[in-house]
Amino acid sequence: MRSQRILTIDWLGALLAFLLLAAIPLVFRSTYMLGVMTVALCYGMWAASWDFMSGLTGRENFGHSLFIGAGAYTAGFLNVNFGADPWWSLLAAPLVAVLFSLLMGFPTLRLRGPYFALAMLSASAVMQNLTIIFSAYTGGQDGLNGLFPMLDSVPAYYYLTLGFLAASAVLLRLLANSSWGVILRAIRGDEATCQAAGINVTFYKIASLMISAAVAGLGGALYAHYQLQVGPDLFAVILSINIIIMVYVGGIGSIYGPIGGAILLNALTESLRGLSEYRLWVYTVVLMIILFFLPQGLIAPLWRRVRSLFA
Amino acid sequence: MSELLQVQGLNKWFGGLHAVKDVSFALQPGSITGVLGPNGAGKTTMFNLLTGFIAVDSGSVLFDGHSLTGLVPHRIVNCGLARTFQLARPFAGMSVVENVEVACLAPRVRKAGKPRERARALLDQVGLGRQAELDADVLPYGDLRRLEIARALATNPKLLLLDEPFAGLGGSEIGPLAELIRTLHESEGLSILIIEHKLREFMQLVHHVIAMDFGEVVAVGTPSEIVRHPRVIEAYLGTAQIDLELARHEGAGRA
Amino acid sequence: MQIVIYGAVISSIYALLAVGFTLIFGVARILNLAHGSFYALGAYGVYTLTANARLPLWLAALVSVLLVGCLGVAIERVLVRPLRRSMLAVLLITLAVALMVEQVLLLTFGSEARNVPSMVDATYQLFGVDISGQRLLAFAGAVVVLAGLWGFLQFTRLGSAILAVSQDAEAAQYMGIPSDRMYSIVMGVSAAMAAVAGVLVAPFQSVIPSMGLLPLVKAFAIVVVGGLGSIAGSIVGALLLGFSETIIAFEVSIEWSQIVSVAAVLITLIVRPAGFFGKRAAF
């Protein structure tokens, strides 16, 4: 456990980052830019939630989009099919996502590493296919259109998303720093030894998957109400993989690093917006750089370097 | 005095191999017992059966009044039966004290005190106090064994199962470790069950021995009785070896 | 009857893809996510060589397959070998290759489907079912290649060496078989097989930059169900998947047929992770 001083610096750094992000609407007036940032913040929630479960336990989940799509489509169903108030999505989406995590978690978490990854991946692919098949309810390939946001102005929606991101990040980080985090990292170390230490490993794996799903689903709902539409792409494998790349860029296991990675990669791909064919290149090149040169990521090691100047 | 551990008719098959055959024995509270037997005798399999890492095919295990058959490992630990592993596998990427802290978070002992502080105290107890902040991966073999023991102790067990604690250790490391085990037994009143190969350490440490061969219990008794037992000699020791051990044993005045 | 014939054609192509995929895994422990790229490159290769280089169709097909095979060898030597220590790194690098190939194809050829002329123009009637000559050729071609592979592995020295490496790379090394070189060769063979599949189907499948994705998913699914590293498992799996998809496509809907592969993976992993014919559990 870190010393008190390091903890204080960490939280101060987090506060600073939050203030910087909060200042963005005041500095950049363009609604387009704010929109991009709002999406980036959603990715931040998805990346942080992935890191909390897979980053800490080492059980890599290649089907995170399952929870994102679940949350987004819940928002879509409630808002479009049932005409419910958008605020309800923020409550229902995490719950539905948690349900999915329970459904998939029990049979798959007992599988060894790569099998778990693959099982979650195919689960999200199955959902993607199902949303296309049952097009009468889901709108098929075109998805559901006509969602409306709970707040009308773009800056207000940005602050709403930022608020939820900050709350989730704080919660996840607090858990990671607590005895919960110690246990999750022990699971990463050796599951059998963990059992021998009297820890109910299955409970912690499933519980952390549920928490991860809840945050991801919430992000999915916020994203859906911003984009005003949902489609089967939200269950796509490539989405899960992009998020994992963001986590690796940020620094796996740190919770805050992946958020930085998400914002960085979104900003990067946006700056290449004109050259739309090159978006995929960005992720590919970044992936290769990380693999060969920066396995620890970029952002978390950078922050630790900065922090050591003050500690 | 009721028994701490009562094992009756324990059986385990791996395909066609009858790995553990009708094993029955009992342990008294406060005892320190050894399990002796050649490689493949079924000792570690029996440990795995007792601690829930492998499912029992038939038989019963009664510990402190609870039936353990069918329970998952972490529940058994929380009943008060802790074990170490033959191949010590510390939690990679975590410090020594964090390794023990995990066990302090087990439901059985969670309220017993601040996990961090308990962990440090346990490390002091096994002699690893100075290595607390080190990465567990850098510990030498002998220290890893102590870490295993500290972690097992953290769950406040009534019975401690040690799986070949001396394997792979050099002469200078064996003595101190044996001393630690003896101290734990005598000062804490901890009941201990040890699997070990090295005959000398056995003799000096345990009061009773359960000898196994081919999955069966072939003899039970004190150390000096066991080394004279014909089945044990036949299975485990050559005659020359046994003379040597007897001589050393009698020389130490412990017969 | 239609189902039998179309099912057979699809299964044979799937088998070609799946066996190549399982081969490189069984021998070199490489989960090659670029396998679909080799398939796509085979198709685009034939297109370029006939349209731009004006080569005769048969020659273009052959050259394309050879070139893709060499590319496979090159990728193994240059990109995969340095990362061999970590399976995850190898997986991610093949993913990177797959992404890059798709991007290059998109930039070079654009997203419009390209037309590759059929090798056999005629339509035939088989048991009262109309089937294009190209599809029949695809079936025949796949069967021939698979038979050739089997013969190669069973009867040639190189083939036996490859089998030895797949059983125990270290032991094979002690017997003087250069494992490293074997990995490159097998990668080349695997890539060439995928390219053959691409060449055979190019005339009747849409030749677009992303054409490699679905075949990769199918090959992966077949191999998981059949058991990673098991050639027999891949062939059985290919038949199962090919016929299930065809039956469902005809009787229910196309969309439902697409879910079979991923659902099969999920169910297999939950019920029997090693696959139904797997000799040893993967990873």
Helix/strand order of chain A: HHHHHHEHHHHEHHHH
What kind of oligomer do you see? heterotrimer
Order of strands, widest sheet of chain A: 1-2
Q: Biggest interface, and residues per chain?
A: A-C, 27 and 29 residues
Order the strands across the largest sheet of chain C as they lie in space: 1-2
| SS field, number of helical segments of chain C | 11
Helix content bin of chain A: over 70%
The total number of structural domains of chain A is: 1
Radius of gyration of chain A: 19 Å
Helix-strand category of chain A:
mainly alpha
Rounded mean pLDDT of chain C is 85
Task: Give the topology string of chain C: H per helix, E per strand.
Answer: HHHHEEHHHHHHH
Helix content of chain C: over 70%
Structural class of chain C: mainly alpha
Calculate the terminal CA-CA distance of chain A, rounded to whole Å.
15 Å
CATH T-level fold name of chain A: ABC transporter involved in vitamin B12 uptake, BtuC
Rg of chain C: 18 Å
Strand content of chain C: under 5%
Distance between the termini of chain C: 41 Å
Short summary of the structure?
The complex is a heterotrimer of chains A (311), B (255) and C (283). Chain B has ten helices and ten strands.
Highlighted features:
heterotrimer; A: 311 residues; mainly alpha; ABC transporter involved in vitamin B12 uptake, BtuC; 14 helices; 77% helix; 1% strand; globular; C: 283 residues; two-stranded antiparallel sheet; 11 helices; 2 strands; 73% helix
